[in-house]
Design goal:
The strands form two sheets. Strands 1, 2, 3, 4, 5, 6 and 7 form a seven-stranded mixed β-sheet that branches. This protein has a two-stranded antiparallel sheet with strand order 8-9. It is built from six helices and nine strands. It is an alpha+beta fold.
Amino acid sequence: MGKEVIIPNISVDCVIFGFDFEKLNVLLVERELIDSKTGAVIIKDHTLTGYHIFEDEVLDSAASRILKDLTGLENIYLEQFYTFSDIDRVAGAKDKIWLDYMNKGFADRIITVGYFSLIDSTKVELTVHNRNASWFPIDEIPGMELAFDHKHIFDKALEALRNKVKVDPIMFELLPERFTLTQLQKLLEAVFDTPLEKRNFRKKVGQMPYVVALKEKQVGVPHKPAQLYLFSREVYEKTKKERIGLMF
């Protein structure tokens, strides 16, 4: 296979959210540049998982390739959510130094297409290649230094994720087949970064026919066993036209 040719002014960035049953995290890749002569650190921050697309790729394929190349993750559902085209996206001093260092022929103006995903981070194993990839709690992001306009991309992705959760049952994919209401509440609190009042939350769940109470309780737990529930896709599809969203 010949050398892949990049499109110099088009890239994709993947915002991968991971839930670990306690908090919501986002996947970031370390960006580090060290002076080869002095050993001084010139750049040390983080980026989202992103890169340029190749001439023979469509955007979706590029997003999947880039995610796998940087983290080892594959077969992850990715949803396109926004296109970022500000003129000064890569105009920062550190970003210009980084692009010159990479020497890949990138353009001075780069348009990037954003993708997001929500996964169970306890079930995936990151494979570190040339750069370190790791999870960071979303509430740490405001105080971190991210490359380019990646903090803005993160904010837009989080907004898109929250809007998605309000109208689509994607969060149930992260729960066990039989889950407790406490587990569901913790997931939603993590996504929206806000506490939910227990009584009001359970009242709302009681209005969701697709969250089905089972005649089963937890077993093998050190506390009073809680009732178990399951998400019924069949009931959800049948009642979809009767509501605007999920009522969260």
